[in-house]
Amino acid sequence: MDQHMEMLKNKNVSERLANELKRFETEEEPILFAVIGDLSLNCSYCETMLAITKNRTIVIDSSLEGGAAVYPHADVEKAVVKRMYGNAVLKYTVKGKALSVFRFTYSVAALCDTAAVFVEHMHDGGDLAEELDVVAATYEKMMNVCPRCGRTLLRAGAECIHCQSKKKMAGK
């Protein structure tokens, strides 16, 4: 099984993103987790990906030159999520310059917050196992929330009682 299928992710990785990601993954530095987004940096709706390894951030976005960008964590002085009306942006400060790295809707904001903290801690020499535990807990918690309405689910991955088809209920 490919590495990109085993990494932590919020959605299934499309074939297009998986093929693009293969350009960047290596045996020595696997993708640890990824955030699949739905906005490009230029604010158009499309599938994008923020992939994190131990030493790099990989952004796959059709609005970027070459369709992707790579940011070594050693170069990232600061990582923050800037929330705006309707969407948010992950920004990195590299060599004193603020760069917009990844734009996303609020549905994945918690995951991007976690990615920002992970990148800063890796830059500062944090313990990888400890940081991955925090990331895994965040992903697990995200699976207990309905992506459509935000209500807590009965169990991870269950169908939301509020959003499920009312046809089932009417049939009984």
Concise structural overview:
This protein is an alpha+beta fold and 172 residues long. It is built from 5 helices and 8 strands.
Give a verbal description of the structure.
The protein has 172 residues and is α+β, with helices and mostly antiparallel strands. It has a single domain (3-127), classed as Roll (PH-domain like). It is 27% helix and 29% strand. It contains 5 helices and 8 strands; from the N terminus they run αβαβββββββααα. It has helices at 3-6, 15-21, 109-123, 128-142, 166-171, and strands at residues 8-9, 33-39, 45-52, 56-60, 68-72, 76-83, 88-94, 97-104. A 5-stranded mixed β-sheet has the order 1-2-3-4-5, with helices on both faces. α3 packs antiparallel against α4 (128-142). The radius of gyration is 17 Å and the shape is globular.
Topology:
Blueprint: H1 3-6, E1 8-9, H2 15-21, E2 33-39, E3 45-52, E4 56-60, E5 68-72, E6 76-83, E7 88-94, E8 97-104, H3 109-123, H4 128-142, H5 166-171
Parallel strand pairs: 1-2
Antiparallel strand pairs: 2-3, 3-4, 4-5, 6-7, 7-8
Helix pairs in contact: 3-4
**Strand order, biggest sheet?**
1-2-3-4-5
Strand content: 25-35%
CATH architectural category: Roll
Could you tell me the CATH topology label. PH-domain like
Fourth-level CATH superfamily: Pleckstrin-homology domain (PH domain)/Phosphotyrosine-binding domain (PTB)
Q: Which ranges are low-confidence, i.e. pLDDT below 50, for 5 or more consecutive residues?
A: 1-5
CATH class: Mainly Beta
SSE pattern, N- to C-terminal? HEHEEEEEEEHHH
Number of strands: 8
Name the shape in a single word.
globular
